[in-house]
Amino acid sequence: MTYLTCQNLCLGYEGREILHDLNFSVNAGDYLCIVGENGSGKSTLIKTVLGLREPFAGYIGYDGGLRQTEIGYLPQQTDIQRDFPASVREIVLSGCLSSRGICPFYRAEDKKRAEENMERMGISELSDRCYRDLSGGQQQRVLLARALCATKKMLLLDEPVSGLDPFATAEMYRLIAELNRNDGITVLMVSHDIGAALTYATHILHIGSRIFFGKREEYEKSEMGRSFSAPAKGGDEG
Quick check: 235 pLDDT over 60? Predict the structure, then answer.
């Protein structure tokens, strides 16, 4: 079952085109890693899929019962966001906002879902803690629980391990892999960590001056896969 189809996409920001004629699709259960050089447009692609940016040209289609508002999103954090003065429970609950419609209050089912997702992420004991007092790894698990409150089908993750120590990085990758394998949640993840991409992904989308889209095994055998052996480093519009 196809969830997402992108055809002949032309993408950019601030009037500058950075991607042209991009074509790929995502099926239910896929784990797609989006890789490429710094500034190649990885984060821009994610924001366009989410509707936060308009494509310059091309088509984005949502199928298989997936709606754009049912995609869970874990963005890169800014320093201001890391210092947000709200409780863990409040932040996780806010992931239910897109499904509330015109209801001005959280429903009992929203609160139940938030509790379940905090338990899944191992942060139930942190529910009354202030978010800004948590470690980087704990904050990312809170944001992942929040994203899960918005979806049962697809997660979009933009550099979810950026700035984390090795232990927290391994734990985050484990949680994401379990959500994909055990819960059937489709994953789209922007990453500079090519090693992790080749470990966990079922498919690779490599964007830049050249484009590759296909199964992980095909990418490993390709010229692009062999040459892209080390992760690129940061950039807000990477």
Answer: no
Q: How far apart are CA 130 and CA 59, in angstroms?
A: 41
Cβ pair 204, 216 in contact under 8 A? yes
DSSP letter string over 73-120? Answer: EEPPPPHHHHT--SBHHHHHHGGGGGG-TT-SS--HHHHHHHHHHHHH
What is the model's pTM? Answer: 0.89
Please give the single-letter amino acid code of residue 120: R
Q: What is the pLDDT of residues 195-232, one digit of tens each?
A: 999 999 999 999 988 899 999 999 999 988 888 854 44
- Spatial separation of the C-alpha atoms in residues 20 and 57, rounded to whole Å: 9
Is the distance from CB of 27 to CB of 86 less than 8 angstroms?
A: no
SS3 at position 27:
strand
Torsion of CA 203, 31, 157, 150, to 10 degrees: 140
In the chain, the domains with their CATH numbers are 2-227 (3.40.50.300)
